[in-house]
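ARCHIVE CARD
Drawer: 12
Card no.: 0347
Subject: one protein chain, sequence and derived structure
Cross-reference: see card 0346
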Amino acid sequence: MLFAARRDGNDMSDWLVDAENPLLTAVALARVDDPSRPDRLAWNAFRTLALWETDVWVPRLLDVACGPDNPLTGLEWSGTSVVPWATGAAFDDAVDVVLDGPEALVVVLASLVRELGPDQVRAGVREVLTATSPSAKAGGVVLVLPPDSPGPPPEDAAAELPAGTVGWLTWRDVGALAVDLAEEADELRAGQVHRLVTDLQEQFPSLDL
């Protein structure tokens, strides 16, 4: 099952992509059902992107978030796992989505607030360092924030990671990436992206995609 509404009715706020996925535990569903949290939107967005090969869209996401000259884009991203809530950390106002590839690991912190504080970013950096320290993998942190977000995370909050491995993009950027992928997709995937765009526009009414 690629997408489903968890409750009766046509309210798009009930829609969950991949609704039978075992990652949607009781704890996860409690977070998804909380309208003040970004978990449902993050799940729908990143599980939709995961329908495509990760070596196609992860580098493009990193280019937007960290700039075209970042040290992460050129690494191997084929076969990357895309796992929400993978760190086990309790982030205030954010949900983590871990992109774990053969040569690098990126912690995405997705939020509905316009600006995450330095402590939030440092917490993401610590998770990256913990996850990559036993290996030779590179690491990074990417924030996904509302379209009217004022800008990048504080530089000092990410001082422990190399330059160009911490960045940010907006939910509109995520939606635009999905729309680009859908342009040459089959009907099922295109329909999935249409639902995601509708979901984003319900959360951010002024969003134009």
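Annotation on reverse: Confidence is low (pLDDT under 50) at residues 1-12. Helices lie at 26-32, 39-49, 54-66, 118-132, 171-182, 187-203.
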